[in-house]
Specification:
Blueprint: E1 2-8, H1 11-25, E2 28-31, E3 39-47, H2 52-59, E4 66-72, E5 75-77, E6 80-87, H3 89-104, E7 117-126, E8 133-140, E9 142-151, E10 154-164
Antiparallel strand pairs: 1-3, 1-9, 2-7, 4-6, 4-8, 5-6, 6-7, 9-10
Length: 166
């Protein structure tokens, strides 16, 4: 099973992202994640037979709730367009410490710097879009361990566990 650790988004943040996706759809084509799949990945764990090591890493998370906001022009990596995230410094500290803990548990983590973003569209086909993500914010109160499955050609994310921030 494919696993990742992520922040699931509030309805207000999700709505801002859906507004941006609608604007993108009017300007080009691509593979748009459905509303229920919008999230902020903290660490991709890859294939794992047993989620126990990932659950153990999640249980060790020590972080207070913090604010997170989206808004402004999207960025892109090649043909993937994303919404940038502004957050309390706690977000980057959380991601960096979580990735270090995952490495120590045998999970392979990328060496490049972590850039917080939320994917709006993959395989974009069109001109450079003229889109602004509406401003929205939330307080992050938990982190989720998610399983990613491909079912009937659709990506389905299932929460296996979560950790409340205190």
């Amino acid at each position: 099973m494919r696993l990742f650790l992520a922040i699931q988004l509030s309805p207000a943040v999700r709505e801002a992202l859906l507004t941006a996706q609608d604007a993108l759809r009017r300007q080009g084509r691509g593979s748009f994640p459905p509303p229920e799949n919008l999230h902020l990945t903290l660490a991709f764990l890859g294939e794992a037979e047993d989620p126990a090591r990932a659950r153990a890493a999640l249980s060790e998370v020590s972080c207070r709730p913090f604010s997170l906001a989206v808004g402004g022009p999207p960025g892109h990596f090649g043909d993937l367009w994303w919404a940038g995230v502004r957050a309390d410094p706690a977000l980057e500290e959380l991601a960096v410490s979580l990735q270090a803990d995952l490495r120590s548990r045998g999970f392979c983590q990328e060496d490049r710097p972590w850039l917080p973003h939320i994917t709006l569209v993959r395989r974009w086909r069109g001109e450079v879009p003229q889109v602004t993500v509406p401003h929205a914010s939330m307080v992050v109160r938990q982190i989720s361990l998610l399983r990613s499955d491909q079912i009937d050609g659709k990506r389905i994310y299932t929460e296996l566990s979560h950790k409340s921030l205190r």
